[in-house]
């Protein structure tokens, strides 16, 4: 039987909240949305007159709100992205519907909620959003507790994807949230940051090429949140050494914003070390086995990323390297992290991840799907301009500890499928593979839109763990 006495709070990742502006006539922000991609039409929202890029933050915003009338409205239902700023991410409908199926519900009429969807203005500092979170979740918890009986001692359980975990951590550790929180479940959260954020901030957003002549760099560099996604761990190659962002000069970026981002991470880490119960309430679900940028080298004012530390490759979820996904001063083989071979963009939709979340919420065993023994890696570009081929590099390898079930070999082929967000198959290719070797599937003539790429085995009995990624096909004619 499910235990629904607590209040579950869902926080999305960066760009995962719809945003609007309160009208001059007092009409709600929900009536004036400017960031709410629907059906994959992301380019329309970036190119229209009132777009997200018109809401660049002022210099020196720090941990404040700019007073521009922008408000978060809801969780993004489908794929969302700003090309070149962060990985295209799937929406949160699958996760929310799973929680509803377990008996969690939002407030209706006089019925208090034990499910709180907590969108936030992802442009702003995670400190600001952590403080604001208290004004959302604590009144909801009080209303739930007011029912008395088994609900009187209810607490909060956070289920957070990506950057949402940083917001929740700040609330828990720095805003008194630990007093009313039972569990913190993070899905692909960059506890120590992600190297991609450095590359995107330093190099700027792909621009000046055909339809992508929009300069998105100024908007990206105005976001305290994106700076706070930069790695805390030493990942900047300097000869044979690796340095932290504050131990060198990061080209193109304001030194004060870089230092403040590092301070955000170190302050959180110090607070977690000082509170004995912090580690016990944390449940990390991380993506693994995917090609992931981990280190970076600066030359000529540009950032060049690498997937390894010297000869070592820790992999990750395609966006967050394993070194950035593991918190609490833990080693990469820590027992507080559940590892799932999946891409960052799809962790919140992955069936095994949803099983894990269910078990953590209900404290009851969930019947597992059979785990496979073949791991797939897929390298899928975030952005392709219409007319260019979509090229997907894939490989597979056996689990090192798969034992006799592995039969010593990977399957002879993998199936790569491209489909729309509504599930319509656009293209499919079967590619021959070998153990550990890369093979490329190439798709030409795909229509513009936000598409999903799935890599799986051709034989259902081959024991292949499928992986999923999203890609934005930018239209050649806006």
UniProtKB/TrEMBL annotation:
Protein name (database record): Lecithin:cholesterol acyltransferase
SUPFAM superfamilies, per the entry: alpha/beta-Hydrolases
Species this protein is from: Intrasporangium calvum
PROSITE patterns assigned to the protein according to its UniProt record, in alphabetical order: FILAMIN_REPEAT (PS50194)
InterPro entries: AB_hydrolase_fold (IPR029058), Filamin/ABP280_repeat-like (IPR017868), LACT/PDAT_acylTrfase (IPR003386)
Highest classification ranks of the organism: Bacteria, Bacillati, Actinomycetota, Actinomycetes, Micrococcales
Domain of life assignment: Bacteria
């Amino acid at each position: 039987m499910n235990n629904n006495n607590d209040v579950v709070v869902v926080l999305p990742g960066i760009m995962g909240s719809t945003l609007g502006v309160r009208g001059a006539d007092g009409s709600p922000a929900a009536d004036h949305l400017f960031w709410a991609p629907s059906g994959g039409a992301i380019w329309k929202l970036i190119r229209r007159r009132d777009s997200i890029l018109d809401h660049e933050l002022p210099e020196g915003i720090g941990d404040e709100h700019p007073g521009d009338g922008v408000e978060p409205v809801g969780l993004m239902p489908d794929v969302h992205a700003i090309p070149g700023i962060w990985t295209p991410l799937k929406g949160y409908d699958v996760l929310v519907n799973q929680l509803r199926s377990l008996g969690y519900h939002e407030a209706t009429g006089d019925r208090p909620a034990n499910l709180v969807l907590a969108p936030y203005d992802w442009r702003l500092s995670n400190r600001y959003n952590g403080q604001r979170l208290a004004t959302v979740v604590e009144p909801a918890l009080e209303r739930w507790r007011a029912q008395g009986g088994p609900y009187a001692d209810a607490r909060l359980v956070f289920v957070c994807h990506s950057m949402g975990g940083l917001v929740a951590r700040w609330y828990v550790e720095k805003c008194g949230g630990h007093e009313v929180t039972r569990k913190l479940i993070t899905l692909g959260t960059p506890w120590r940051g992600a190297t991609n954020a450095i590359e995107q901030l330093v190099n700027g957003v792909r621009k000046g090429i055909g339809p992508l002549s929009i300069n998105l760099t100024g908007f990206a560099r105005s976001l305290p949140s994106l700076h706070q996604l930069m790695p805390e761990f030493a990942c900047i190659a300097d000869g044979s050494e690796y340095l932290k962002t504050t131990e060198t000069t990061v080209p193109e970026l304001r030194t004060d914003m870089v230092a403040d981002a590092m301070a955000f991470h170190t302050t959180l880490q110090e607070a977690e070390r000082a509170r004995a119960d912090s580690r016990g309430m944390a449940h990390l679900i991380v993506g693994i086995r995917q090609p992931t940028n981990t280190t970076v080298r600066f030359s000529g004012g540009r950032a060049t990323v690498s997937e390894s530390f010297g000869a070592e490759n820790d992999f990750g979820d395609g966006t967050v390297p394993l070194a950035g996904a593991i918190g609490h001063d833990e080693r990469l083989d820590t027992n507080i992290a559940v590892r799932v071979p999946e891409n960052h963009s799809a962790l919140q939709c992955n069936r095994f991840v949803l099983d894990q979340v269910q078990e953590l919420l209900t404290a009851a065993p969930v019947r597992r799907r059979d785990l496979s023994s073949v791991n797939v890696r897929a390298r899928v570009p975030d952005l392709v301009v219409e007319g260019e081929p979509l090229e997907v590099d894939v490989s597979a390898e056996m689990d090192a500890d798969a034992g006799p079930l592995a039969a010593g070999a990977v399957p002879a082929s993998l199936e790569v499928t491209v489909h729309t967000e509504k599930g319509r198959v656009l293209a499919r290719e079967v590619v021959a593979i070998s153990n550990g070797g890369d093979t490329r599937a190439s798709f030409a003539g795909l229509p513009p839109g936000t598409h999903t790429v799935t890599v799986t085995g051709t034989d259902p009995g081959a024991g292949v763990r499928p992986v999923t990624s999203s890609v934005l096909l930018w239209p050649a004619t806006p």
